[in-house]
Input
Amino acid sequence: MQVDVIASVNEARAIDLTHRTVIVIDVLRATSTIVTALSHGASGVIPVETVSQAKQTVQTGDVLGGERYSKKITGFDTGNSPFEYMVNDYNGKRIVLTTSNGTRAIQKAMKADHVLAGAMINAAACANAAYKLRKDIALLCAGTQDTFAFEDGLCAGLILAELYRCGENVQEIVTNDYGSMMYSAYRFHENNMVQALMSSSGGKRLSKLGYAKDVDYCAQVNVNPLVPILENNIMKPFNL
Amino acid sequence: MQVDVIASVNEARAIDLTHRTVIVIDVLRATSTIVTALSHGASGVIPVETVSQAKQTVQTGDVLGGERYSKKITGFDTGNSPFEYMVNDYNGKRIVLTTSNGTRAIQKAMKADHVLAGAMINAAACANAAYKLRKDIALLCAGTQDTFAFEDGLCAGLILAELYRCGENVQEIVTNDYGSMMYSAYRFHENNMVQALMSSSGGKRLSKLGYAKDVDYCAQVNVNPLVPILENNIMKPFNL
Output
């Protein structure tokens, strides 16, 4: 099984995505938030690229969420902090979500056979689900404003480590050079993920904006078994 | 001092190179070979992008060297193995060199204030020279056919580690997220660089072609104090 890491959305070519399972990774914070929202009862998350698309898509009863420059968008119901989705109010509701990078990456991934949302919090479950789908895999790092983000690379390395555990032997999972790099970096930081995320550009930026507890939350490894999968443009909990 | 890693030539924008010292890294094998040729007495190495440019550039008394698909080019004097340059025959001679990736990266880097050639074998010397030039630095990974190469990333991480040692305090050297990633991966492999290089796509390819000893040689860390610097399109030994 080939498992390639794509370091940023700009580097994703159609040939790297088609006929594959793509795991989109935006640790700070889109994919962590999608996992959290669905595991707290939201019926689905609709990722859209722009603010105007979000406003066009939202229907009565839906929740309108998202951020620009890490802050809630004016007129929206809620932002992009996972803590904002740990509420009962959104139980059974659809979330229409637009974020700076994560939702764009999900849109780009739509060429794939299956699209999953991966984060530190659901890495093992996500690796297990992707492995069972029996397709080659692309780990698509969403990044920040078209550049590579450290925390997404670490998460790609973590998901690779979990895929190695799924494999029947060490030769079964084959990765590309970005994959080897992310895996090695993850192994260097595996016992201190909070500090690693706090040292990243994204972690520092969120901390300055008062979201340090979001970084702490998103740095937790394998604490959530929920795997979001895209079905008809809506992220829903995947039932294997 | 800002020290940014650029993961492949395709990602290098002019703005990332101008007013900087650029260290071009092509561990397997262009920059390792340039260091070796100069430290064995060649008077200079002229990096050119294409075979026809090489043929146009070469003058009587010069050596014509290079590779395509890792093999010597038909009609050329020599290939791109560092061992081919450990001879007395090239003493005082200019080498006109064309390789698949490394020489293209050097051409691209020419927008910079200074261009150095970095490899595992001269990493500490190269970091020291770049630090003393007092400009911000870009570590440009040459990669393989427009994609990131693991061994170049590890070498970027090693050079970053050496730059951290040059810095007067831990805050002086600031890197981007690719830099954090390459540094972490280097630290994971620092005690077993030969094995790391042998596990890379480039290392495997060279081994298959009978160049395993080249990989062993290029994996040696800080064994050569020579730093090539580009002066009027010729790589020459840098005298600080």
Notes: The two ends of chain B are 19 Å apart (CA to CA). Chain B is about 35% helix and 20% strand. The longest strand of chain B covers residues 63-68. Chain B has a mean pLDDT of 95.
